[in-house]
Design brief:
The protein is 81% helix and 0% strand. The chain has 269 residues and is an all-alpha fold. Among the domains are: 30 residues; 91 residues, no CATH class. It starts with a helix and ends with a helix.
Length: 269
């Protein structure tokens, strides 16, 4: 579970609720027809813009936004370097059995291409096509959420217009004007809140996840091609460390230093 996503959305709703309770009750802001106008209208609009399959594909993608995922770049560097050491000692074919059990499908595919003797240019081409297709799938989900973020306020305004028309039809009843105006504005409230607290932030979170996965896959491509070229494992490691952020690189270097000290202590004892 990604606590930042849950905390952000939860905190937003809590703060909005506290603002409401400061001057009225929550029941004043609950109106089922207004919710139906915003949510139903938004769904209808995205169904017009996108194929139904693409619209409903965002359901598992929303799960991705809520699922916690730490960067795997450091672990991938260690694993690729180990593959490089094995290939250098025992040859490329020695990696086949070990990589068959690896959980990362993209790394398995790359190493298997190398083991099968595929030309380096073709290996890069196949893996980059796979990367582009993966990004395209994520981009489609982001587009749907961004469209929902654009349509929700618009349908909120539409609901407000409907409410205003209904209110103006009762101008002969002054007592109904105040409640009618408040009810008319609730749809705008729903549309703005859903767009800026749910739909657009979710699209942004998916974009961040996609960028993270792209970095990891580019790291794998470079690592696999370096192994195929027979490069020294230490050179492979130094090359792949460039994919880490300065903070991650510092942690990795500190970890290596600590491991070296422990190894010296163990040998001394």
């Amino acid at each position: 579970m990604d606590l930042t996503t849950v905390l952000g959305i939860g905190l937003g709703f809590v703060l909005i609720s506290l603002s409401i309770l400061d001057g009225s009750s929550l029941s004043t802001f609950i109106d089922v027809p207004s919710m139906l106008v915003v949510l139903g209208g938004t769904l209808a609009a995205v169904l017009v813009q996108f194929p139904a399959k693409q619209v409903f594909s965002i359901i598992p993608l929303i799960g991705v936004a809520f699922r916690g995922r730490e960067s795997q770049a450091r672990e991938l560097i260690h694993e690729v370097v180990e593959f490089a050491k094995k290939a250098r000692r025992e040859g490329l074919l020695a990696m086949e059995q070990e990589v068959a059990e690896h959980p990362n499908e993209f790394l398995r595919k790359g190493v298997q291409l190398v083991v099968d003797g595929t030309e380096p240019e073709l290996v890069r081409s196949i893996m980059e096509i796979d990367l582009a297709a993966h990004e395209e799938r994520h981009a489609l989900g982001q587009e749907v959420l961004q469209a929902m973020g654009a349509y929700a306020p618009a349908f909120g305004m539409l609901g407000t217009v409907i409410g205003l028309i209904q209110m103006l039809a009762q101008l002969d009843n002054p007592e109904a004007i105040g409640p009618g105006m408040a009810l008319a504005l609730i749809t705008t409230f729903y549309g703005v809140m859903l767009a800026n607290l749910v739909f657009l932030p979710m699209a942004g979170k998916l974009r961040v996840r996609s960028q993270q996965e792209r970095l990891e896959r580019e790291l794998i491509i470079e690592g696999v091609l370096s192994i195929q070229a027979g490069e020294n494992p230490r050179i492979v490691e130094e090359k792949l460390l460039a994919f880490l952020s300065p903070e991650e690189r510092a942690r990795e270097l500190a970890s290596r230093t600590q491991a070296g000290r422990e190894a010296v202590t163990s040998d001394a004892s």
